[in-house]
Amino acid sequence: MQHPDIHFERLGEKQEVAVIRLTRGAKRNALNDGLILALRDLFENMPEGVRAAVIAGEGPHFCAGLDLSELKERDAGQGLHHSRMWHAALERVQYGPVPVIAALQGAVVGGGLELASACHIRVADASTFYALPEGSRGIFVGGGGAVRIPKLIGAARMTDMMLTGRVYNAQDGERIGLAQYLVPEGAAFDKALELAVRVAQNAPLTNYALMHALPRIAEQPADQGFFTEAMMAAIAQSAPEAKTRLNDFLEGRAAKVRKQD
Ligand code: 1HE
């Protein structure tokens, strides 16, 4: 994958983790159309053997959102298609081939928060702050934020962020559910990579179920959700890998669950 504003590399013992770094630091990793399309292409063509991904930004900020310099010339029809382009790209992140962990620092704003909310796990360092400045720029979210962000923090908090320009700091962001992990300043990437290596060790069907079945089940009425859950459970447990792992536990070869300090 070649794009001037994305650095792609593979890490981990078996090169099982894809690291995708936005390298447009001079523009605070603002997402122009080229970058959005490159992200889409990258997730559509993830190399064989990759089992988890980390997304990070170059410099002190994760992402300043939509590249505002590209916005001003668009009419309504172009705006619609532009938003749908973001949807298609971030859909590939959320429902793509592998779980994605966002390493957050500094600004996670506007479309940057939309990108982060399409990821499966968010790790924020202490410098992180979250905002939806669309409200004050006279626009609206267009990258799937209206669907994904209320699922994380509720519609009331998102409404407040957009109506008042409220900025959440790293601690409050973790408290309300914008990130699942809060780590000291500068530590987000290492923590995200550590988690990605761990996620990559799961049975692929378990990861698939979490990425593709769980969010759909959560949208279904309970009766249908229970049924879909049963289907997914049956498929996952029938895989040879599941049987091996269960035997490993029963024969004392697998790690037990231990209390964390
Ligand atoms: C940009 C952008 C951008 C920075 N588009 N160029 N997003 C926003 O409304 C956030 C706008 N950005 C900011 O509030 C600040 O830049 C930051 C808090 C992210 C960082 O501040 P700082 O002081 O570190 O950097 P800076 O000096 O403001 O910016 C450095 C350069 O990046 C500067 O360009 P330069 O040529 O003068 O050096 C900025 O113009 C440029 N830059 N952010 C374009 N966003 C699918 S719909 C989604 C809708 C949205 O995302 S709306 C929210 C957009």
From TrEMBL:
Annotated keywords: Lyase
Alphabetized InterPro entries for the sequence: ClpP/crotonase-like_dom_sf, Enoyl-CoA_hyd/isom_CS, Enoyl-CoA_hydra/iso, Enoyl-CoA_hydra_C
UniProt family annotation: Belongs to the enoyl-CoA hydratase/isomerase family.
Gene3D superfamilies tied to this protein: 2-enoyl-CoA Hydratase, Chain A, domain 1, Lyase 2-enoyl-coa Hydratase, Chain A, domain 2
Protein name: Crotonase/enoyl-CoA hydratase family protein
SUPFAM superfamilies, alphabetized: ClpP/crotonase
Keyword match Nucleotide-binding: no
